[in-house]
Amino acid sequence: MDILAFLDARITEDETEARRQLEQLGMVAAAKADLRAFAECKAKRKIIAHHERIDWDYEPAGDQDYMEKFLFILAEVYADHPDYNKDWEVW
Global pTM? Predict the structure, then answer.
């Protein structure tokens, strides 16, 4: 599994869990709930989308190699997942 597929699957799991918890709260409590989990998922998806828009065949794209490191850093949150690849660790 590559880093993009791994992150997409984990973020989808996070969104599903956040939605499940929100549904358990009931209508009034859900309206007051901290929706940070959804915002975090959205932010992670934006980082991945930015990475996917880079034209890696274009010469200056090499200057954006740091973008792949950002993906590895995002993945570290899920280091205890069985599909996590230790080779993704940047430090």
Answer: 0.76
